[in-house]
Structure formats: C-alpha cells, structure tokens
C-alpha cells in the first residue's frame, strides 16, 4: 500500500505547487488596488443588512444526516461486492445475497421511516 | 405551503416543528440577474422558503409624468416610448388614442391599420422576451436565444419602418409620422408565416418539457380574487381564467373589425392562475396576434397616414379623460387632464406592471426561493414602466 | 505509471532504486495528469461555448486564433492572470483563500486513478474506484468552505445547496457502481477495464438490464455531482447570482472554473472506465487505447453539454426528491437485481 501511496503524494504535491505557482503568477501580474467599496460584500448593490452566520435552513442538516447513514451503507456494500464474485464461483451466492438482502432491508426500514416522517419533504 | 399528511408521520410530531431555522433578510436586486431590471426585492427567508417579500421600486424613476407638463402634446410621445422599453409602440398607442379621443380627431384608415400591425408585431416581440427570459429564469438558456432570433426579425421590420430598433417614436397624434415603406406588407406576411411555424417549436422545447412543467405548474398561483384586489391585468388576469382584454372588451382603434380569440388560463397542467398558465397565455396570444396581423395586412387601404386638419401645435380642449388600451403587459391607462392649452395640465399613467408586480407580496410568502424567481419571471414586469 | 517506471528503468538501468523509480515515475505521471487536466479544462471551455453556440444557432467565439476562436480560452487564461485578487473585508480570510485549493487539489487527486491506457495510470490502486469517490468528495468541503467564508448570502445559499446536492447524489453514484464491482470482483480500475475485453457486448453497461439502469443512474448522478445543468443549483445564475463563488475574482475564481471542467471530464472518464469498456474498442483487438478512451469520455462530455443547453433547471426540493425517492431506491434495486441475475445465470463475469 505504501508503494501505491507514493504516486498519490506526488499528485498532491504537484497540484499544490501548480496552484501556488498560478496564484503567485496572478499576484505578480495582476493589480492590487483595494478600496473600501471594492472589498464590501456583494448583496445586489445595496449594503448588506445582516450577517450570514446564523442557524441556516434545517433541511440541509437532515440531508447531511441521511447522507451519513447511506454513505456508511455504501461503504459496507463495497467489500461485499468484491467478495460476491468469488462467492458465486464457490456456489454460495444465495447466501451472500441473502446476507446483503437482510442488511439492506434494515436500512430500507429506516429509509421508509424517514420518508413517512416527512424527512424527505421540503415544504 | 399547505400541511401535507406526509409531514406528520408515524412519530406523531411534525419534524418541521421540532427543528427551526433563523430568518435571513436578503436583498434580491437591484443588481440581480433574475429581477428583470432594477427591481429590489427584500426577501425574508429561512434558507429556501420565503417568509416575506417586499418590493422596493423607484430605481428607474425619471419623472416622466411631470415632464409631460413641460412639453406640448406631441412632444410627450417620445417619453411614452421609454415606459415599457420592450413594447414602446403599445405605450405610444395608448397615449395617441387618449389625445385623439379628447381632440375628437378621426385617424385615417391606413394609419389605423399600420398602427395595429405595428402594435401586434410589438406585442409578439414583447411576449418573445417574456417567454425567453422566463425560460432563462428556469435555467433554460436556449429558448431565450431562439426567441431573440424571431424578435430580431420584428426589429428589422420596425427598423425599416421607423428607423429605430428599440424606441420608435413612430406614432403621432392623429396618425403616424410617415407612411410605411414599399414592401412593408410583404415583410410582415413573411415574418408571420415564419412565426406561426416557430411557436410549436417553443412548445416542444419549453412549454411541454417535463422539468419546465414541474417548475411552473401549481407555482405562484394568482387567483381571480387576488387579481381583482391588486388590479392585475393582461396575461396575469387572463392566466387566472378571465378572458378580459381591452382590445375586445373596451375596443379602441379598429380592433372591433378583426376576428381573434382571447386566450385564458385553464389550469391545463396544474391550477388555474399558475405560472404555466400565464406563460401559456402569452404563447397563445402570439398566435392571435399573427391572426390579427394577417387580417390587417389584407385589409390595408391606401391613402394618407395623418389627420389633415391638425395643426403642428395641437391645443386640446379643457377636460379630462381616462383611456385604456391593451399593451403586452396588460391594461395601460392614460388619464389626461387638459386645460385648453398646448401642454398637458397633468398626465397620470396607470401602468400594468406596477399593479402586476405587487402581487408578489401576497403570493410570495410560503413559496421556495426558486419559485419566487419563477413567479417574478411569469409576471413579466418592465421596470421602466413601473417607475416611469 | 507502469509505462513511466519502465521508461525510467530503461534510461537509468540499475542506477535508481525501486523507491526512486516510483518517485520519478509518479512525479512524471502527476505532471502529465496536471497537464491533461489543464488542457482538457481549456479545451472544454472552448467546446462548451461552441456547443452552446451550435445549439442556439449562433457561432460562439470566432475571433481569437483565426479558426473558430480556438485560442479564446488561452486569451481568457491570460486575462484572468492579470486580474486583481479581491478578498472581501468581512470574509473569513484563511478559509476564503484556501477553498479554491481544496477544490482544485481534490479534483486533480482523483485524476490519479484514471486508467487512460494499459499501464498509463498515475496511481494503480487496488482501491481505485473507491479512492476516486473518496477524493472527489473533497469538492463538497471546498464548496462549503467557499460559501461560508465569503460571508455573502448568495454564496451561503449556493454552498448549502451544493453540499446537499453533492452528498445526496454521491449515494446513487456509488451505489450504481456496485454491480460492476460485483461482476469484476475488484476495485482496481485497470482490472475493471480489462474485465470488459472482447467487444461492445462485454462492456458492463450491456452486461444485463440492471447494469444498464445502473449506467443511466450513474450518468444522471454524475451530472448532479459536478453541478451542471439541469442540476446546476449551486450556481443558478438566475437565482443565486453565481452561487458559492460569487465573491471570488481572478485566479481563485479560475480554480473553481478549471475544477468544474476537470470534474466534468473526470466523471465521464470514470463512466467510460467502469461502464463503457475503458480503452477497449467496439470490436477487435486493443487499438490506440488512449485515443479510444478519450473519444468515449469526450462523447459523454458532449452529451452532458447537450443536456445542459437543452433542459431547464430543477428546483432544490425536486432535486432532492429525484435523488432520495427515485434514484437511491432504484440503485438499491439494481444492486440486488444484478446479484440475482448473476445467481440465476450462474456466471461470474
């Protein structure tokens, strides 16, 4: 695995260096003339009336929670998917499928609950 | 919107009550892509759902009504051009009719026909913009450019006719400034032939697109009661299911000679008076305008285009008169007061977009931010005419 | 990677240790990938305008570079380099300045695992597909950072929408790829492509009906994942002005822009490798593998552009509705269906 990580480190390094290079280039070529009006926040041409750092639309937090749930599920599905082929070859596919069916079924119950509870509604 | 059964699930409580967010006050406009000019909407929202809208207007106010008191009757025609800069001829038309009625002057037949051809061409041009930008508000770029392609043809005709592409100043008290060019009828008919073929294209591309219907049907429903309370006219009123049109119901010029229907919203894809209905009313009106243009071109007589007995400096007898005509946005009314002199004593313009716009404060709360954009787009406002 | 390390081994003989070979090869591949990414972003900005122009019956760029404005993107880059870098007064400066890097680096990192041709892959990972999903979600963090740090209401809206959309569509995206993993039994991108050897009927999207549906799901989810029309809600120029990058100027804005087009190509590359046979030609033996791969991916990109310039945009609740109520259940059905299909046909690949 460590041998496989080296190229990734190279890519990260290259990307970071390149972006710094371009930003430096732009800083060197571009003007820098700040003024107080230019550095105001854009709110359609009128001064902003309130700050944005407030408790924001809760619906998005529900989405985040749902995502956690389902992303974990997907993560668990991947190892199973890799093994599935060999299990088919060994003739244990029905067992594998049943196992995963049970796992997904538990999740689907939760999903249906969220659905019924209105967690997927927006209005 | 309304409570749905899905909101109260098995648990008994409503998740939406248990969790709440803070309200954010946000200025939508005057410099915003979706406000069609320099409209400023102050929106209170908790993120996606709008809790209140206030429309702030006046960024394009140019004192046009006050200016009228300083120029003579003919001169003010130029300023009416600047009201609805997407349909200036319809604005001219109303003012010309108002002053002519006060003067009791008879407009020559040829002038009346050319006026109607121009006004209907202009109505199509204005509706094309309305439809195109409405599509743009929904994120559909391409219909806008198709609409501009057809509008370009109209502008070309009007340019050859009047010399201007945006502001024409072509109508005059008692007729037109000058006669139409040779081949005007041919150009107009050629355009109408193209236009009638293009409308089904828009229908397939936009009107009956599934996503478009999802975005517009049942959204921003403006019912008849609201229309009456706010004085909405034009496609907004017709979208609410009332076939009211000044061209039919309070005829001016020679509209009573032509055969055409008044399209109105039937709630084909959702509720009567939703965004889709207003959009579709405009789409169908373009057909009707084509019908009127065909009839007017067929009946176009020869003769003068100016009333003979009018002096250069007209003096309007003392009195006042309210005249309404149908512009592409709705009922444009000119309430003109004359003191017998060569200048208007006072003019008051009742602009359709002004009344149509403020409905947003009534229907806005409860809808989603994207629906607010859709609803403003479907009202088809022009700020030049609201602020004057 | 293999290609490069072989090359270096041939050049230096035994002069380099295996670690040195890895570093040298990795660095070269990383540079090549960066070059590919930058050039594809440049080509696609031009192509996007030309496609839009073609669809909208106009020309698009015509002036710069004599023939059909081919040098327009280069001119744009030069212009952007000469722009002032403005950081708003009220912004959270460190976050504001860091956000474009996160998106850009995240985008380039995912490129490391794309197999353009046999052996031509920057990082031949056993977990390749998984790695791509993991790394590309860095974009979500970048979007949130940009939106929050700007202290601008439109940016915040765009960021919240963008994050919600990206995380939601990641699920059908990842689920849609599971049937393929079941068939190949590997997450290695090379193995996945090699498993599709032998003409178009061996490509995964034609393997069985469930996989075909999975491919469609992947395609739709990938459009949403890169925030393009009809799912361009985080930007929605008609609602949110410019979404999460409203406050960005100059080069920092360009990073968002480059990352968007790079991601566009990236998801198409993944679709090509996973569902459309990668470098395998329609029939016959492997022939010009890199070119075949790029052609397939570019066709997918053009398809995405076609959709963008044709369709209106969804509303945010409809977007979530499509994801959670249609695509996620459908993707689960695809996973189970593909399993049952394999069981029924008794075939392992």
Tell me what the structure shows.
The complex is a heterotrimer of chains A (123), B (388) and C (349). Chain A has 123 residues and is mainly alpha-helical. In chain A, 68% of the residues lie in helices and 0% in strands. The mean pLDDT of chain A is 78. Helix content of chain B is 46%, strand content 12%. Chain B has 16 helices and 8 strands. A 3-stranded antiparallel sheet of chain B has the order 1-2-3. Chain B has a 3-stranded antiparallel sheet with strand order 6-7-8. In chain B, helix 5 packs antiparallel against helix 15, helix 6 packs antiparallel against helix 7 and helix 12 packs parallel to helix 15. The longest helix of chain B is centred in the first third of the chain and has 29 residues. The N terminus of chain B is likely disordered. Chain C has one domain. Chain C has 12 helices and no strands. Classes of the chains: A mainly alpha (123), B alpha+beta (388), C mainly alpha (349). Chains in contact: A-B, A-C, B-C. Chains A and B meet through helix 2 and helix 3 of A and strand 1 of B.
Secondary-structure blueprint:
The complex is a heterotrimer of chains A (123), B (388) and C (349).
Chain A: H1 2-29, H2 59-89, H3 93-117
Chain B: H1 15-18, E1 24-28, E2 40-45, E3 50-56, H2 64-68, H3 77-81, H4 88-103, H5 109-137, H6 142-162, E4 171-172, E5 175-176, H7 184-207, H8 210-216, H9 224-230, H10 235-239, H11 246-249, H12 275-298, E6 319-326, E7 331-338, E8 344-350, H13 352-357, H14 360-363, H15 369-379, H16 383-387
Helix pairs in contact in B: 4-5, 5-6, 5-12, 5-15, 6-7, 7-12, 12-15
Chain C: H1 2-12, H2 18-55, H3 72-81, H4 93-111, H5 128-136, H6 138-149, H7 153-184, H8 189-194, H9 209-225, H10 250-274, H11 289-308, H12 316-345
Helix pairs in contact in C: 1-2, 2-10, 4-5, 4-6, 4-10, 6-7, 7-9, 7-12, 9-10, 9-12, 10-11
């Amino acid at each position: 695995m460590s041998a496989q990580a080296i190229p990734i480190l190279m890519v990260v390094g290259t990307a970071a260096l390149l972006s710094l290079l371009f930003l430096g280039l732009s800083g060197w070529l571009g003007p820098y003339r700040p003024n107080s009006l230019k550095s105001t926040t854009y709110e359609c041409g009128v001064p902003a009336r309130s700050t944005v750092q407030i408790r924001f639309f809760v619906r998005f937090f529900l989405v985040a929670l749902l995502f956690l749930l389902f992303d974990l599920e997907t993560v668990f599905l991947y190892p199973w998917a890799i093994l599935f082929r060999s299990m088919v070859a060994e003739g244990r596919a029905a067992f594998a499928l049943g196992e995963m069916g049970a796992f997904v079924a538990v999740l689907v119950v939760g999903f249906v609950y969220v659905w019924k509870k209105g967690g997927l509604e927006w209005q | 919107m309304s409570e749905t059964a899905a909101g109260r699930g098995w648990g008994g409580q409503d998740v939406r009550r248990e969790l709440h967010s803070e309200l954010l006050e946000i200025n939508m406009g005057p410099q915003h892509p979706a406000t069609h000019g320099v409209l400023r909407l102050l929106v209170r929202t908790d993120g996606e759902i709008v809790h209140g809208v206030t429309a702030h207007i006046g960024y394009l106010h140019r004192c046009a009504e006050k200016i009228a008191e300083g120029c003579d009757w003919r001169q003010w025609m130029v300023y009416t051009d600047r009201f609805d800069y997407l349909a200036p001829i319809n604005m001219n038309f109303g003012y010309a009719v108002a002053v002519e009625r006060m003067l009791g002057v008879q407009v020559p037949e040829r002038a009346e026909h050319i006026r109607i051809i121009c006004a209907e061409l202009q109505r199509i041009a204005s509706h094309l913009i309305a439809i195109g930008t409405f599509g743009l508000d929904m994120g559909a770029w391409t219909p806008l450019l198709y609409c501009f392609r057809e509008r370009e043809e109209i502008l070309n005709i009007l340019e050859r006719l009047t010399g201007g592409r945006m502001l024409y100043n072509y109508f005059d008290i008692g007729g037109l400034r000058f006669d139409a060019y040779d081949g005007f009828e041919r150009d107009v008919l050629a355009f109408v032939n193209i236009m009638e073929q293009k409308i089904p294209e828009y229908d397939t591309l936009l009107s009956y697109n599934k996503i478009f219907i999802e975005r517009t049907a049942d959204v921003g429903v403006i019912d008849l009661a609201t229309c009456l309370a706010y004085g909405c006219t034009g496609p907004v009123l017709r979208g609410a299911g009332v076939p009211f049109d000044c061209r039919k119901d309070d005829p001016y010029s020679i509209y009573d000679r032509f055969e055409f229907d008044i399209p109105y919203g039937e709630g084909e894809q959702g509720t009567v008076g939703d965004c889709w209905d207003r959009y579709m009313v405009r789409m169908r009106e373009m057909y009707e305008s084509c019908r009127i243009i065909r009839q007017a071109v067929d009946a176009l007589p020869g003769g003068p285009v100016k009333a003979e007995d009018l002096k250069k400096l007209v003096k309007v007898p003392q009195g006042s008169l309210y005249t309404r005509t149908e512009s592409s946005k709705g009922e444009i009314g000119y309430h003109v007061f004359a003191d017998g002199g060569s200048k208007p004593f006072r003019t008051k313009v009742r602009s359709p977009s002004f009344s149509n716009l403020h409905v947003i404060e009534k229907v806005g709360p409860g809808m989603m931010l994207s629906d607010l954009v859709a609803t403003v787009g479907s009202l088809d406002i022009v700020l030049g005419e609201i602020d004057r | 990677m293999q290609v490069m390390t072989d090359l270096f081994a041939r050049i230096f003989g035994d002069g380099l240790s295996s670690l040195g070979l890895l570093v040298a090869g990795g660095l070269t591949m990383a540079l090549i990938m960066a070059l590919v990414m930058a050039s594809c972003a440049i080509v696609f900005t031009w192509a996007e305008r030309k496609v839009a122009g073609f669809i909208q019956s106009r020309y698009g760029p015509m002036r710069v570079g004599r023939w059909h404005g081919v040098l327009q993107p280069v001119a744009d880059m030069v212009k952007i380099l000469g722009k002032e870098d403005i950081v708003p007064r009220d912004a959270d400066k460190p976050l504001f300045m860091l956000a474009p890097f996160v998106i850009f680096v995240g985008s380039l990192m995912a490129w490391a695992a794309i197999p353009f041709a046999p052996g031509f892959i920057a990082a031949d990972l056993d977990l390749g597909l998984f790695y791509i999903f993991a790394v590309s979600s860095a974009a979500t963090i970048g979007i949130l950072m940009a939106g929050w740090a700007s202290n601008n209401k439109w940016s915040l809206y765009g960021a919240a929408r963008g994050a919600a959309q990206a995380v939601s569509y990641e699920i059908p995206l990842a689920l849609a790829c599971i049937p393929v993993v079941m068939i190949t039994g590997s997450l290695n991108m090379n193995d996945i492509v090699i498993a599709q050897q032998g003409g178009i009927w061996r490509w995964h999207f034609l393997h069985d009906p469930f996989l075909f549906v999975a491919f469609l799901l992947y395609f739709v989810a990938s459009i949403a994942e890169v925030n393009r029309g009809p799912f361009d809600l985080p930007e929605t120029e008609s609602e949110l002005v410019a979404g999460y990058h409203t406050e960005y100027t100059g080069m920092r804005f360009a990073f968002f822009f480059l990352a968007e087009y790079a991601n566009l190509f990236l998801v198409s590359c993944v679709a090509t490798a996973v569902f459309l046979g990668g470098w395998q030609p329609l029939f016959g033996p492997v022939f010009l593998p890199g070119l075949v791969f790029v052609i397939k991916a570019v066709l997918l990109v053009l398809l995405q552009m076609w959709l963008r310039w044709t369709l209106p945009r969804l509303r945010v609740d409809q977007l979530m509705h499509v994801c959670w109520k249609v695509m996620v259940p459908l993707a689960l059905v695809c996973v189970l269906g593909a399993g049952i299909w394999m069981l029924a046909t008794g075939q392992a690949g």
